[in-house]
Amino acid sequence: MTRVLDRDDRHDGVEVAATPAAGSGETARAPRHRWRPSRTVTLNLAAVTTLLLLWQLVATVGGEDPTLRPSPVLVAKTLFELSGTDNGGYEGLPWWQHLLISARRIGIGAGIGVVLGLLLGVLMGVIAWLRTVLTPLLSLLRALPPLAYFSLVIIWFGIDETPKLVLLGLAALPPVAAVTAEAVTQAPQSLIEAARSLGGSRAQVIRDVLVPSALPQVITGIRLALAIAISSLVAAETVNGLPGIGGMIRDAQAYNNTAVVVVGLFAIGIGALGLDALIAALGRRLTPWTGRA
Amino acid sequence: MSRRPASRLVLLFTPILAAALATSGCGGSSSASTDGAKPKITIAYQKFPSGDLVVKHDKLLETALPGYTIEWKVFDSGASINTAFVADAVDIAAIGSSPVARGLSDPLNIPYKVAFVLDVAGANEALVARNGSGVSTIAGLKGHRIATPFASTSHYSLLAALTAAGLTDKDVTLVDLQPQDIVAAWKRGDIDAAYVWLPTLEELKQTGTVLVDSAAVAKDGKPTLDLGVVSDDLISKHPEVVDAWRKAETTALAQVREQPDTAAKAVAAELSITEADAKSQLSQGIFLSPAEITSSTWLGSGGKPGDIVTNLLDAAQFLADQKKIPSAPSRDAIAAAIYTKGLPDVLTK
């Protein structure tokens, strides 16, 4: 068994030149399909490996310092320790449950923000004066750092779930509304007129012409909105954020547990990538006419 | 049109790079660094009423050490001061006993030593129940929601008070809130009690009842303190600076005790509050005399660390119980981090 594995190892990768010597005298094997990593995958793997090695190097040179420069090994160990509840996890929960709780907040808070943003965007796209009135307000809201107005949200909505959802909603709404409004106004006039001349009511034109034509841009807007909501997560969880991945990061910071902070950052990052890929895939499903299927 | 894109990139990144290089050049201001001809001493301070603010405001250290550049940097928590020590960016700091216990434990093991007791938490940190919550005793807090800034001395005192009343942190709902958020949550009725320090405490008292304060918790053997810590590097390279600093803090403490009006003026100016408020806040802390500081009850003297070792050990054990550190350090390790060289004479000579 081990010999077969050995041989396989030699066949893999780039050292094909070694194959004849290694395989000489062996019984002929059935030709098999070998997995050939695509150029992109190889490049990505090489980049990640190089980065990890560099990180380990930076962390180890001049002595380990778990607070200033936790090594990838330490972070991996911390990740493992926080994965179960054998060691109590973090504040009694494994890291992925903190992530799930935060994901739920994003789902509800940013979800409401996205839906309201869509409605508002369509209205702004259709009603010109509304667009004129709301555009500067939305730009203003977009420019404000969430941490700056979070204290107001706390005074108004308390310290439980509501303020976190409100903050995430406020973060997600403006980009969706702005992009949707823009997309709706850019809908081809010929299509709208055609639908009108076929007897379509205003509602029908919105539903059957404006929304589908705006959809590809709207999907991009939603991806942007979720990215902004995720980057506001730590702000949303600065106050009474435990359990929650942002709360975990903040709590760990207060105790100088840098490795836990890094674990939390990775969790948020990977969660964000996953969510973005999901929405992108959903977008391709919803708008099969754009790009390549 | 013939311009290559690379040159634009260079144009774009040159100022960014220049800025990055300029800022990185300024980093790392440890005791060894010199500003011109004078060695620079960086002091981390926090905005709580203390003799430390008198030292800063009256420029006691600048007067005592004309050959040095003294830089004061404000910090908002012990955790950030610990980080600054790890980054070798400060030499001396005013910091609570809980973060010091954290700093002396694995894996931080910050090379600093406790060289002074700035104050002992007394009535200036307390557990208050909100009027209308129906809570009048600590035991009555069972099932209620209590806010405190986690990782602080108040957090430690709260858990000590709950334990003394026969409760654990499982019997209540603990909420991690910073002082300003405690006020908001309190006014909205989101929390029933809070363990916090001045000036937030003063605001809560107006609509609440004090259940216990840190002076009472201290009597039960769990005192919390504000400490002066000094980096090992500074102790080995500039012991004369440490001596001058301890003397300046002693002078300031004497002023707080004996001329509270003068001290209140300095504290009021540093905290941007009225002198009356500053005086009232100062009166609620416990400020030790040189004899008390160097007694075996607190810091100790001449190579014999006092009971502060036990206090820090308790605080470290608390962190270990909370699973914030792998384990508490040994008694010897903490004793080795108490700097008593030259005490008590150096304070008054």
Brief summary:
Chain A has 293 residues and is an all-alpha fold.
What is the helical fraction of chain B, as a range of percent? 40-55%
Tally of helical runs of chain A: 13
CATH-defined topology of the largest domain in chain B: D-Maltodextrin-Binding Protein, domain 2
- Quick one: CATH class of the largest domain in chain B? Alpha Beta
- Strand residues, percent of chain A: under 5%
Mean pLDDT of chain B: 89
Helix tally of chain B? 17
Low-confidence stretches of chain B: 1-5, 23-29
Structure notes:
The complex is a heterodimer of chains A (293) and B (349). With 293 residues, chain A is an all-alpha fold. In chain A, 73% of the residues lie in helices and 0% in strands. The longest helix of chain A has 32 residues, at 95-126. Chain A is globular. In chain B, helix 5 (97-103) crosses helix 15 (308-321). Chain B folds into 2 domains: 6-120 and 223-348, D-Maltodextrin-Binding Protein, domain 2 (3-Layer(aba) Sandwich); 125-219, Periplasmic binding protein-like II (D-Maltodextrin-Binding Protein, domain 2), CATH 3.40.190. Helix content of chain B is 45%, strand content 19%. In chain B, strands 1, 2, 3, 4, 5 and 11 form a 6-stranded mixed sheet that branches. In chain B, strands 8-7-9-6-10 form a 5-stranded mixed sheet, sandwiched between helices. Chain B has a two-stranded antiparallel sheet with strand order 12-13. Chain B is an alpha/beta fold and 349 residues long. The chains are: A mainly alpha (293), B alpha/beta (349). Chains A and B meet through helix 7 and helix 12 of A and helix 4 and helix 7 of B.
